[in-house]
Design brief:
Strand order of the largest sheet: 9-8-12-11-10
Largest sheet: 5 strands, mixed
Order of helices and strands: HEEEEEEEHHEEEHHHEEHHHHHHHHHH
Strand content: 5-15%
Number of helices: 16
Number of strands: 12
Shape: globular
Structural class: alpha+beta
């Protein structure tokens, strides 16, 4: 999301520039997952530069437990570095270890043990509670990040119905409360909620025993629900309010322009439900169908309500297949619509979820007529979500559909693993992974690899997923974890309005920031704005183009669809390693 360009950001840019920009310089020591590893995990250490010395691993008593010779030197194009890669996977005994090179202690300690990502999973899930709209966050749950209620959203104006947006008088209103704030701003968006809710429910469907075992201190309305389903319901309830009587679904609830850096209760501009459209409606249909399956055994009435809403939405989309969202000229909040959108991937996903939920032939027929494409998973292309569903629920679908879905998943996973195996950082990432929200691309790549493991039992896919998480947790050229509050070095200044205005030094833990890329949308390349973020990309390499600065909405914002695959990836590895 963009930000309101005000004096606050001009000041913060100057204050933090000197500190933040130093991260672009080359790192002298080894780069490693700062949270640690399970005993059976693949464990990779990346050392920038070239050195004839090997690597020695010692326990805290000074005993040498592993010695490795110096490996070959690789070039990594995404950072422009020469690096050496050490595989310390032979280190399996639980404990804390230190690395030595040339007799000198280097880098941060390495932890090997069980449940090393448990706290990460819980914090990344707890962050969704901190993103709740329409409720106060009480100290017994929110701690020092407690805040007043913002955005009651009991009288949201339907865009185009009031005098301000081209209608008459005060306009039509709907009640559209609850739900999660989307990102660093206070909008609520159906398209992004769609893939977010899918990812969290997919984590629960794939690893229910592990996620059932966790608690993270949120208020309980539905005591019989697992906590993850309690949290997800808070957003599902909001999504249900966005469906009009005819079945169509509004795109978003936002103000007309992004608000400033204030707490939620101070952001009091009128909020609008903006434009029904086919992609939002289909994302809604898919998620409601999926949720109806997940919730059926614990709340049949709620599941029935969601399935009814899903079918009604799909019927609307079939009647309005070309009703794509077009941002009104007086609306400047998030678009969530991309060039070339044709709706085929959304129809594919919705049909897959609805056929699983209902077994009605028309949905599978629609799916057969709309073949899978070889694409990844992000809000702008949900093809892979449909492939996940069909590939995993093979007993429900036509065998040719299942074969096609499995091929899509495994081809993508095999391409990722091949890249990771030959990369200097052992990172399964494509050139197009380095875009806005690159860190979520890495997490989503890990999610694809986990699905390949679930389909085949091949442990090499788990190794690839581990490398994706390692990158997010410190094995990267910036030598930081990209998750607030975790590791030895992590972001302190996320682009996130509550963090910017709550007068608390520490950001809420568990937020995955967007990550590096060369878009530079926030540094005013064309000189047309009166302010800009510092030029954090003096080097022209995507893995270095990051700054821990509140002004950087392009690299340091947070978002629900970025946190969700972090939850999935960390939870998956905990569940797999914990057997």
């Amino acid at each position: 999301m963009n930000i309101q360009k005000n004096a606050f950001f001009r000041i913060c840019a100057v204050v933090s520039a000197a500190i933040s920009l130093t991260a672009v310089s080359a790192v002298a020591g080894p780069l490693v997952n700062q949270l640690g590893f399970a005993p059976d995990a693949e464990k990779i250490v990346v050392y920038p530069g070239s050195d004839a010395n090997g690597l020695e691993v010692r326990d805290l008593n000074g005993k040498t437990v592993l010695k490795l010779d110096a490996p070959m030197v690789y070039d990594w194009d995404f950072s422009g570095e020469e690096v050496q890669t050490f595989d310390i996977s032979a280190l399996k005994a639980p404990g804390t270890y230190r690395l030595f090179r040339g007799g000198e202690y280097v880098g941060t300690p390495i932890v090997v043990g069980k449940n090393v990502y448990n706290d990460l999973v819980k914090a990344s899930l707890k962050w969704f509670y901190y993103q709740r709209s329409s409720m106060a966050l009480a100290p017994e749950y929110a701690g020092k990040w407690a805040r007043a209620m913002g955005h009651k959203d009991d009288k949201v104006i339907v865009y185009g119905s009031d005098k301000v947006t081209g209608g008459k008088g005060s306009g039509k209103t709907i009640k559209s409360d609850r739900g999660w704030y989307d990102a660093g701003d206070y909008g609520k968006y159906i398209v992004n909620s769609g893939i977010t809710v899918f990812t969290l429910l997919e984590a629960y469907e794939n690893f229910p025993k592990y996620l059932d075992s966790l608690t993270w201190n949120i208020p309980r309305e539905f005591a019989k629900y697992p906590e993850i389903l309690e949290e997800v319901r808070y957003n599902l309830d909001w999504m249900l309010t966005m469906q009009d009587k005819d079945g169509g679904v509004y795109h978003k609830v936002t103000t007309l322009k992004f608000g400033g850096s204030v707490m939620p209760e101070k952001d009091d501009a009128p909020r609008y439900a903006i434009l029904k459209n086919v992609t939002a409606t289909l994302d809604f249909a898919a998620v409601m169908a999926q949720a109806s399956v997940v919730y059926r055994n614990i709340d049949k009435a709620y599941a029935d309500n969601m399935l009814k809403a899903a079918e009604k939405a799909y019927a609307w989309a079939k009647k309005n297949p070309k009703a794509f969202y077009k941002q009104p000229v007086d609306v400047q909040t998030g678009n969530y619509m991309h060039d070339g959108e044709d709706g085929k991937d959304e129809f594919r996903w919705a049909a897959a979820e609805l056929f699983r939920a209902t077994k009605k032939k028309n949905y599978q027929d629609d799916l057969k007529a709309n073949p899978f494409t070889p694409d990844g998973a992000w809000w702008g292309n949900v093809n892979m979500l449909a492939a996940f569903r069909v590939a995993q629920d093979s007993a429900s679908f036509d065998k040719d559909l299942v074969a096609a879905a499995k091929k899509v998943v495994l081809d993508e996973a095999n391409n990722l693993r091949a890249v990771g195996d030959t990369s200097g950082y052992h990172l399964p990432a494509f050139p197009w992974s380095w875009n806005w929200g690159s860190n979520s691309a890495m997490a989503n790549n890990g999610m694809v690899l986990v699905h390949a493991y679930l389909l085949t039992g091949d442990r090499s896919y788990v190794d690839g997923a581990q490398q994706c998480l390692d990158y997010l947790l410190g094995k990267n050229p910036m030598d930081i974890t990209y998750v607030t509050g975790f590791g030895y070095r992590s972001p302190r200044n996320p682009h996130h309005r509550p963090s910017e205005s709550d007068m608390v030094d520490d950001p809420v833990p568990g937020m995955l920031v967007g990550g590096p890329h060369l878009g530079k949308q926030d540094i005013n390349l064309d000189g047309t704005e009166s302010w800009k973020c510092p030029d954090y990309a003096a080097a022209d390499k995507p893995a270095l183009a990051y700054i821990d600065n509140r002004c950087s909405y392009a690299t340091n914002e947070v978002a629900i669809n970025w946190n969700a695959p972090l939850v999935y990836l960390a939870a998956a590895l905990e569940a797999i390693y914990g057997k």
